[in-house]
Amino acid sequence: MKKKFTLTTILFFILAFTFAQKDTLTRIPLIGEDAPAFTAETTNGILNFPSDFGKKWKILFSHPADFTPVCSSEILELAYMQNDFDQLGAKLVIVSTDQLARHFAWKKALEDVSLNDRQPVKIKFPLIDDNNRVVSKSYGMISPKVNATKAVRGVFIIDPDNKIASVNFYPMSVGRNIDEIKRTLIALQTTQKQQVLMPANWKPGDDVMLPYISENQRLQLASTNTPADQLSEIDADILSPYFDEYRDTSKPYYSIESPDVYSLNWFMFYKKNK
């Protein structure tokens, strides 16, 4: 009886420890969720994130360690483009799992580098001391299945309401494209401001897409017993009100009479860039 009790007790503690370990692992925050908040020491002083940046856009850029070659090139490219991001109303924040003193040494060394024949540049954005892994864990970048900090390679774009707007991860061996991060930021800002969509390979200045018929709207049509071959002749009340600016509501929705709008089919509408 005593032996059985001992085995049961050991099993209980093993299971409890396993569940406790799982509880310490945090998943990656998904698009539309609140950006995890934290307070940390940085090369620019104490930072309360994201509240210190108010209604600005924020870009959290993470690194597994200081003085790594690929990460060093990324920090420099960000520094060369930091004024561009500032003009777009976005604040850059760097997370690295080394200590603050090492951050200062890394920053100083980088500011003496002339990358691609450009003059050395001062790094204005903060580098966060995440030696305790608090930030990395809260953003789901610590994995029990790989090297402790190998997955700390995420880029999180956060909107003015402190919601996650974009999430991207890159391997340690591949440098991130800072121009692409800037393009993504501009695209997100444009979609939010104009209520439009961005097609594949969109670049600033290209035509954008308009919202299309949602699955719920198609279900509404089905409930009216509209024949499949007449789905293009849709009551304006069922469509996104966005189209009302461009169409004669007495005609089928595809009869948009505007020099600024064109369609490729019933579910792909484009608006010309003026």
What does this structure look like?
The protein is of the alpha+beta class and 274 residues long. The chain folds into two domains: 26-178, 3-Layer(aba) Sandwich (Glutaredoxin), CATH 3.40.30; 208-271, no CATH class. The chain is 30% helix and 18% strand. The chain is built from seven helices and ten strands. It has helices at residues 2-24, 69-80, 82-87, 100-110, 134-138, 178-194, 215-223, and strands spanning 38-42, 45-49, 57-63, 90-96, 127-129, 154-158, 164-169, 208-209, 261-265, 268-271. It has a five-stranded mixed β-sheet. The protein has a three-stranded antiparallel β-sheet with strand order 8-10-9, with no helix packed on it.
Question: Which tags fit this structure?
Answer:
10 strands, 7 helices, five-stranded mixed beta sheet, 2 domains, alpha+beta, 274 residues
Q: Average pLDDT across residues?
A: 82
Strand content: 15-25%
The unreliable regions are: 12-23, 231-242, 251-255
Number of strands: 10
Short description:
The chain has helices spanning 2-24, 69-80, 82-87, 100-110, 134-138, 178-194, 215-223, and strands spanning 38-42, 45-49, 57-63, 90-96, 127-129, 154-158, 164-169, 208-209, 261-265, 268-271. It is α+β, with helices and mostly antiparallel strands and 274 residues long.
Provide the fold topology.
Layout: H1 2-24, E1 38-42, E2 45-49, E3 57-63, H2 69-80, H3 82-87, E4 90-96, H4 100-110, E5 127-129, H5 134-138, E6 154-158, E7 164-169, H6 178-194, E8 208-209, H7 215-223, E9 261-265, E10 268-271
Parallel strand pairs: 3-4, 4-5
Antiparallel strand pairs: 1-2, 3-6, 6-7, 8-10, 9-10
